[in-house]
Every structure is written in C-alpha cells, then in structure tokens.
Amino acid sequence: MITFEGAAKHYPDGTVAVAGLDLTVESGRTTVFVGPSGSGKTTSLRMVNRMVEPTSGKVLVDGQDVRSQNPAQLRRSIGYVIQQAGLFPHRTVRDNIATVPLLLGWGRGRARARAAELMDLVGLEPSQAKRYPHQLSGGQQQRVGVARALAADPPVLLMDEPFSAVDPVVRTGLQDELLRLQAELHKTVVLVTHDIDEAIRIGDRIAVFRPGGELAQYDTPERLLTHPVDDFVESFIGYDRGVRRLAFFPANGLSLREDVVLDDQDTVERALNTVDTAGEPWALVVDQLRRPLGWVAADRLRREPSGVELGRLDLTAYGHTFDVERDSLRAALDAAVLSPAGRAVGVDADGRVLGVVSQADLGGAIWSVSG
Amino acid sequence: MNAVWDWASGVVDWAVANWSHPGDDERGVWPRLVEHARLAYVSILIGLALALPLGLACVRWTRLYPPVLTGVNVLYAVPSIALFFLMLPYTGFSDWTAIVPLALYTLVILLPNVVDGLRQVPEHVRQAAVAMGFGPLRRLITVETPVALPVIIAGLRVASVATISMVSVASLVGLGGLGQLILSEGFRRQFDAPIVVGIVLTVLLAFATDALLVLAQRLLTPWARSGGRRGRRHRAAVPAGEATDADAGTDPTQTADSGNGARPWTS
Q: Under an 8 A CB cutoff, do A91 and B223 touch?
C-alpha cells in the first residue's frame, strides 16, 4: 500500500508541481495517474522512489516513510519503467535486465538465470539475450524495460508513460501484455499516462489530475465514466463517456433474434413469409456453416421471383460482427451503428451467427444497464 | 625517375646507417623514435587523466564549464614554443619541459569531448540509472562514462595525433624525439635525409597510435559497433562523432513492431 499524506512539491520559482496530494494506492492493484501535462502526475509518481522529494507532506510505502531509507537502496526495491525504456545502450538485453539483481549483489550466474526467466515472462526470444538495445524495435525495448523493472521481484512497480513512445498497434499489444502479467503477478502498479483510454483499459483505480497539481477525482474506471465530479473531469474523459462506459457491460446479456436468420438455400418466398411473420424489415442470410453472408431487405424480397434461392441475390454487406461471449455492449452498439441494416450480427467464438440485434433493442438493453 | 629513386634510397641508407649506435644510447634514429613515443604517450595519458575528472566536474557543476573552457582555450592560443621556454626555468632540460605543455594541449582538445560525451548520455538513460538504484559515483563510472566512451575516444584520436606532431617542436629546447632529427641533424646541416626520416616516422607513429585507439574502441564499445552491421541504430544513444560509419545497415527483419525510440524526453 502506498499512501500520499499531503505530499506537495513547490519549486523555488513559485511553480506548484503537486499541491498536496492525499491518496492511497491499494496493494496488488493497478492504479493509474492520468491528467494533462503539468498536472503533477509524474512528479507524484517520482515521490514514491524519491526521485522527487516532496517539499511538504510525506509518502509511505506499507506504512514506512520512504525518506527513512537510503534512496539508492529504496529504489532497488521498487521497479521502475521509464518512457522510451531508458535501456543502457552499452549493455546487452540480458545484462540490462540483470541490472538490479547485480546491484543487489546476486552472483552473475544467478542474475543471468533470472534475466532469462524474465525474458520468457515478457515474451522475448532467448536469442535476443546478447543483443544490444538499439538492435531491438521500440516495442521490444519496452518489454526489456518491463523485464528489468521486475528483475528483483519488487512488490511495487512504477511506470512512467511506459507505452507513449510506441505506435498505437504496438501500444495495444503491450497493454494486453501488462494486463496478462498483472493477472499473474499481482504487483502494486502505479502507471502514469496522459491517455485516458489507456487509463480506463488498464486501471483498477484511476486518479485524474488537473493542471496545478491537484487531484480531481480518484475512482474506479466505471464510476469515473458515470459520475465525473466536475466539468474538468468530464471534458478530460471526453463527451463520448456514455458510449465508452458500455465497454464495462458484456454483450451476452442481449436478447438476440434468431428467427430472421435465413439459410442461403432458402427461397425468396420462404424469406418473405419469415419477415412478414416477424414484422422485421431485414433478414440476415448465412451459409451452410452459419457464417454471415449479408443482409436482404423485405422490400427487395417483394421484387424478386419467389423461387430464387437467397444465396443468388446481391446481399447488403453486414459490416463487422461482435462476439457474444467476449465482446462488450460497446462493440455490439458499434456493429449496429456501422451496419447498413441498423442491426448487429452476434457470433460465437468460431464466427457462427447466433442471432441479430437491432439498434432499438440495443437501446433498451443499454438503458436498462446504465439506468 | 632515377633521381627520385636515388634520393629515396639515399634517405633509407642514411636511416639504416644511423638507426642506432651500439654503446651510445643517445644517438641514432631509434632512440629518437623511442623518446618521441615516450614524450607523446606520457603527455597524452596525463592529459587524459586530467580531462576525465575535469570533464566530469564540468558536467556535474555546469557553471564551471564556461570559465574552464575559456581558460584552456586561452592556454591553447599560447604558442607551444613559448610554453616550452617558459617551462625551462622550472624543469630544466628534463622530459617534463616537453610533457607539461603537451599534456595541457591534450587536455584542451579532450575536455570538450569528455563534456560533450557525458552530456550526450540520453536523459532517459540517466534517469533509468537513478531509478534502478545506482549511486551517483557508480552511475558515473558504470553507465555514463561507458556510454560517453565513443565520443571520448574520438577526441583522444585527434588529441594523440596533434600531440605526436607537436612533440617535434620541443626539439627547440633540446627534447623532441624525432624533431631532433629534423632540427639538429637536418635543418642545421642542410641535409634532407634526417628531415624526411623524421617526418615519415612521425607520421607512421601517429598512424600506429590511431590504429591502436580504433582497436581499443572496437574492444571497449562493441555495442556502438554492432549497430552498423546488423541493426537499427538507436539514435538517442549514438554519439554524433560515430554516426558516419554506422547508419547504412538496416535489418529488414526488424521493421515490424517498430516504435520510435528517439522521441525527445518529455515529462
């Protein structure tokens, strides 16, 4: 547990980096400090390992004031991942990872064995052990940075904008990796970012900082999206917070219509019967493996000869599908909004259609969960 | 062509005949060469030994650097002959008369390289070292100095060649290694063989020393070298002085998953 007790940082020129922070970071969880630049989030993070000393107040790790320990020794017990990885260019990947164990006086053999373990943990190939950092891509460098921070198995891991220097695709991969690692390791992670999406994706708890170094709100991601405390937090989160919040609700609660899903070997006549009975303006045509082929409108069916098989018609593209078991309401809504039929196609893990849901039905479901 | 050939073989003959005089260690080409190398190397080593701590101090206390740099630059503007003569009352005709000024010149050339090299250590690397729990001294010795090494060695190469050529000037005060061949045996006697031998051996000594330093750099900084052959260079970590030989190699297998490692540090 990390406790900030009125921790403040005022610079001699009058700048206030952090204006008295009171906050408790829970053990074993991921806490994200998020805010625009100049909001004191990085300064606050660095108070934990004494890279910044508060001018008043204090920071406690497990009840102990960090200032009661020698800074270098304190830092060896706290993992730190820096923006751009900050790898030592003159040391191999393996020796970079072994940095803290070597500082702690482990033997070289033991430190290298540990480095090999960590390379495996963060998804690096053993063949990369003897490479130098500049021979790796940005994403790989950042993995080495995470491995180095975890090398001495510290209970606390500080991450300062760890993924901001890599491109969006790599960033998403690294975020997934962090979530996977955290599910396994249960470290007390404090991560700083200016990216609210990253915060919501990764954080168990989110601290939103405002310019001037004040804590604006400290809450779970869901509470933050439903109950932003003020205009600043609301605008920082973005005005699509309602839609984003749907990411927290699973799509498996939706009631899907199965009756308007038709086989490509069915005839137009049969299809017309179906849509008229159901009172639906669209039907979805699937192949023999129940994979979606496309939409057909009821009006269109009326103009076609009644004996034609649906598979022979030009169908309207279905856009993208959502996975009923794994995706959220947000994905389902997105699929419905992008579909020309105004309906989303729900599939199982193998891509087989389970049913469809209209925007109107989605609206009802959304209203019931967010009410 | 024959005239040139005869002249050249005359020079070689002179060098062979005068290479050394058994029983008299003071005369001959070989003792001059040894003296030249001794004066140059001792000066370079002392200059390096002074430049390193002074450079470290200038990086640590940034306000120190401008006056120190101005001071050593003024020193560099003093003609070497003048310095050698100025030393005479204090050191007489000992080696120190040559070594003290030459070491100072080495210092002048090396100091900016040491300072620039250390300043070029990327901020995120320095910060990472602090955050990992390196104490200030250990960080300086095991992280910052090694990372600065390519720039420091580049400076050392310039300084050593300059010093080796300048040793000859010390012959005016009776020292100066190969310079003595040029001045006393050649110039004063209007005889060109010793002058040519002196020049050629000075150049060869400079080349050999430079080659040794290149070798030392390859051994000491394998991480800076391997970038040219098989990897993308991490720009932030590459000293400017070394960028020339290394940017050509790009490994196509490493382009996937490529982030930009060279964004400026922002907090």
A: yes
Q: A100–B132: do the CB atoms touch at under 8 Å?
A: yes
Nearest CB to B134 within list A87, A103, A131: A103
Write down which residue in A214, A233, A248 finishes a domain: A248
Range of the domain at A288: 251-370
- Residue A136 burial by CB count (10 A; 0-12/13-18/19+): exposed, middle or buried? buried
Tokens of A315: 């169908």
User: Does A141 lie in the same domain as A18?
Assistant: yes
For residue B246, pLDDT beyond 70? no
pLDDT at B117 exceeding the cut of 90: yes
Number of domains in chain A: 2
Are A40 and A63 in the same domain? yes
Q: Nearest chain B residue to A150 by CA: give it.
A: B132
CATH 1.10.3720.10 assigned to B25-223? yes
Give the separation between CA B105 and CA B102, rounded to whole angstroms: 5
Q: Which of A248, A279, A308 is the last residue of a domain?
A: A248
Q: Cα dihedral sign for A361, A363, A364, A370?
A: positive
pLDDT tens figures, A167-202: 888 888 899 999 999 999 999 999 999 999 899 999
Interface contact B198, partner A, CB < 8 A: no
CA atoms within a 13 Å half-sphere pointing along the CA-CB vector of A65: 10
ipTM of the complex: 0.74
| CATH number, domain containing residue A137 | 3.40.50.300
What dihedral do alpha carbons A310, A311, A317, A321 form, nearest 10°?
100
Q: Are residues A273 and A209 in the same domain?
A: no
Q: Do A90 and B147 touch (CB under 8 A)?
A: yes
- Residues of chain B found within 8 Å of residue A156, distances taken between Cβ atoms: none
**Inter-chain touch B259–A148, beta carbons under 8 Å:** no
Residue A29 gets which letter from DSSP?
Answer: S
Chain A: give the shortest CA distance to residue B53, in Å. 21
Q: Where residue B187 falls among pLDDT bands split at 50, 70, 90?
A: low
The CATH number linked to A362 is 3.10.580.10
- The model's pTM: 0.73
**Do residues A259 and A315 both lie within one domain?**
yes
Which one of A91-100, A321-330, B4-13 scores highest in mean pLDDT?
A: A91-100
